[in-house]
Design brief:
Blueprint lengths: L8 E3 L20 H4 L26 H14 L6 H8 L27 H13 L4 H13 L17 H13 L15 H6 L27 H12 L25 H17 L17 H13 L3 H14 L1 H7 L1 H14 L11 H6 L33 E3 L23
Antiparallel strand pairs: 1-2
Helix pairs in contact: 2-4, 2-13, 4-5, 4-6, 6-8, 8-9, 8-10, 9-10, 10-11, 10-13, 11-13, 12-13
Keywords: Membrane, Repeat, Signal, Transmembrane, Transmembrane helix
Protein name: Prenyltransferase alpha-alpha toroid domain-containing protein
Pfam families: Prenyltrans
Length: 424
């Protein structure tokens, strides 16, 4: 994919709009030949694989939601069902990359099988936590390294312009696989952290301290809460599952300078998030037409980021808001939403089995094959050889307009799956 800017379209990232409407996500994230194709019929009316979490169409987010669900179960000491782990492993291509959803895994991936960094990085984190075969995770990490951009970062699709969200989730994957991102140098001697630093909004500009998703068409960095939550974790070298960081917060104001570090960028980003949620206790949607609506997913992500940055106290109001207001959203959005809330609870030391009176662990378990209350690290994870789930073949790529989703969470751990609009 070229980094050249085109019309305001983007690929469904984790099957929903992760990009704020203010972002100029103009990079066409699919090859031109594929951009002209129409999506295949939805598989939602057909029987879904028994090992899959969630009942919504998995075409665009199957691997993402499965990875988060398994990672969340592991985090709370639930041993995931073998069928669920097998399903995830079976989505890997021989290249090591993961496609969002392969309906027929008996058919080998080819040049038309669309794979992406986000699905692959999420799968690495889940499978590493579960003790997967090194051949599986090692191949995935090797592929991620092979598609690193010259600036040190990653875009959603191979060759796409680097963005804060994709770069951060890949950093998390590398860390989970004991592969130091600092050692992942490009020919231009750039690391993934260098790419993130270029996306940190200067203090003197509007939204200073935040991360931008990508520079806009004029090269300006526009503050994006979604990208900021991701960027804080990435800059800290932490993953989707994290615990509260050192409560020694450092500077209480945005800092910049010649010796600007990734830790400075993380501190600045956390300050931005703390200020953004201070008034209402939640983040608002940045999507056009939904600016006054709460963004549950991004709020949960902000809680995780604040805790990771040692600002758990600043996350208290948002956590309380989620405990009171997230039930309907999670029920509608599915397994990844429950996982997001579990990650927020875990990061702040909150009981996920009594989250505002809701047992998140039970609710998550109800969306997929039953796990068991055993030590999650005892979970046996096979290599790619597995039973094949039967389903119809579907296209795994969908290009949509920036205004795809209205009024639902668009956090970088996005859990909305099935909001679709025609192509622009």
């Amino acid at each position: 994919m070229s980094s050249e800017r085109h019309s305001p379209i983007m690929i469904v990232r984790r099957s929903a709009a992760v990009l704020a409407a203010t972002a100029v996500i103009g990079a066409a994230c699919a090859p031109v030949a594929l951009a002209a194709e129409s999506p295949s019929p939805s598989p939602s009316s057909k029987a879904l694989p028994s090992g899959l979490f969630g009942s919504a169409d998995p075409t665009y987010d199957g691997v993402w939601r499965q990875s988060l669900a398994l990672l969340a179960q592991h985090t709370v000491g639930v041993k995931p069902a073998k069928s669920a782990v097998d399903w995830l492993v079976g989505q890997q291509c021989e290249s090591g990359a993961f496609a969002p959803y392969r309906a027929d895994v008996s058919v080998k991936c080819d040049a038309k099988t669309m794979v992406d960094t986000n699905s692959t990085a999420a799968a690495v984190q889940a499978l590493e936590a579960l003790g997967a075969d090194d051949a599986v995770t090692g191949a995935a990490v090797k592929w991620l390294k092979s598609v690193q951009n010259a600036d040190g970062g990653w875009g959603y699709a191979p060759g796409g312009a680097s963005d804060a969200n994709s770069t951060s989730v890949v950093i998390s994957a590398l860390e989970s696989a004991d592969s130091d991102p600092e050692d992942q140098l490009t020919n231009e001697e750039k690391t993934p952290y260098d790419a993130l630093l270029t996306l940190s909004v200067p203090c003197e500009e509007d939204g200073g301290g935040a991360f931008a998703f990508q520079p806009d068409k004029k090269g300006k960095l526009v503050a994006n809460a979604d990208a900021t939550a991701a960027g804080v974790l990435g800059a800290l070298g932490k993953g989707l599952v994290t615990e509260a960081g050192d409560t020694t917060k450092g500077s209480e104001k945005c800092v910049r300078g010649d010796s600007f570090t990734r830790e400075n960028a993380a501190t600045n980003g956390a300050l931005y998030l703390a200020d953004a949620i201070a008034k209402d206790g939640y983040l608002k949607s940045a999507l056009a037409g939904a600016e006054d609506q709460p963004d549950h997913g991004n709020t949960a992500d902000a809680v995780v980021a604040l805790a990771a940055a040692g600002r758990t106290a600043d996350a208290t109001k948002a956590l309380a808001w989620l405990e009171k207001n997230s039930r309907a959203w999670a029920a509608q959005s599915g397994p990844a939403a429950y996982a997001q809330l579990i990650f927020a609870a875990h990061a702040t030391g909150t009981d996920p089995r009594d989250f505002g009176g809701v047992d998140l662990v039970k609710q998550l378990g109800a969306t997929g094959p039953a796990g068991s209350n055993a030590t999650a690290t005892d979970t046996a994870v096979p290599s790619k050889e597995k039973d094949q789930d039967e389903d119809s073949g579907v296209s795994v790529w969908w290009i949509v307009g920036v205004g795809l989703v209205g009024g639902i969470g668009v956090g970088f751990l996005i859990s909305s799956r099935n909001k679709k609009q025609p192509q622009p």
